[in-house]
Amino acid sequence: MAMRVAPSFEQLEKLSRTRDADLVGRAYIDPALNRGRGAQTNKTSRFDKESREAFDDGWGQVEDLKPFETIEHVERARTIITRNESPDIGFDRSINAYRGCEHGCSYCFARPTHAYLGHSAGLEFERDIYVKVNAVELLRRELADKRYRPKPIAMGTNTDPYQPAERKHKLTRSILQLLLETRHPVTITTKSALVVRDLDILKPMAELGLVRVALSITSMDHKLSRKMEPRASTPEKRLEAIRLLSEAGVPVTVMAAPMIPGLTDMELERILDAAAAQGARDANVVLLRLPGEVRDIFREWLLRHYPDRVGHVMSLVREARGGKDNDPNFGTRFIGEGAYAVLLRQRLEKGRERYGLNKPMPPLRVDLFMPPRVDDGQMNLF
Questions:
Q1: Residue 72 lies in a domain
Q2: pTM score
Q3: Is residue 170 within 8 Å of 132, Cβ to Cβ?
Q4: Do β-strands 93-95 and 153-155 pair in parallel, antiparallel, or remain unpaired?
């Protein structure tokens, strides 16, 4: 049944004097039914005309879906390469073979996209996973288009390409096989050690200058990581993945992302030191972002696991976001602004210099691209 979180009287009294007092009194999913998940509620999509919220009325179980179960939906996409014109992103095209992400990170900025599918950005984002079963077929067709001009394709920009569903469906692996076949450059961002499964593809791609990998490490604290990213690889496994990728010649960047003020930011130097020791070449930081529904989902997670830090964490977030919970503006949305953000950036630069994480990354080659052959029923003239 739904269950309210029970912080201490002192914590409630302190919270009641902050801008986050609305968290108190909400109905949360029973922790016994929510193990391995990040979201604490499952509110309906913001596009629904009617809003439903589960609560305990004394008649027993009210949650109609079993939180433990992951529900896979087969999707036949119309296109697979997504274009963007954002001036503060270093790529103009990306591929996401899955929608939703089972890693269950409470802070995931991609959660609001599930509302477009009629789902909640909460629990349903991490248990209703859409699998684009025709991804490779579409990619072959789009790369074969005579108007196509190669530039690096980014994977892992919205949901993780190596989330648990990848073990079964192997869409990311099949996409990489096609990109190797066509000599097309790619960048991969993940927080899963499953990436090393594809070393047999990534190694030859690296030898041709076609791939870079970024491993995201949010915290070195195993207990904190398990609460915050319940189905992602442990920090130790991610560090091992950095080592194995580096030994295979794959250029690796460590992403200390997101840095959560007052919760994980004190670990920045520790993350950089550990990643450098495993062979990472570069490092970067992204400040916590709380767009749309993510704001409430993250605050609810904080209240359940760290009720004594809600006010402090959110106060620091607002300090770096111009007094708001989120800043969507280009140029500042990833790094923030103000004294806190400046200090975090300075710490990153000092850490990169101290641990040797400022090595130049080899450029990705586009001159090797060979369009794939597509059987369209037409005969070649030559």
A1: yes
A2: 0.89
A3: no
A4: parallel
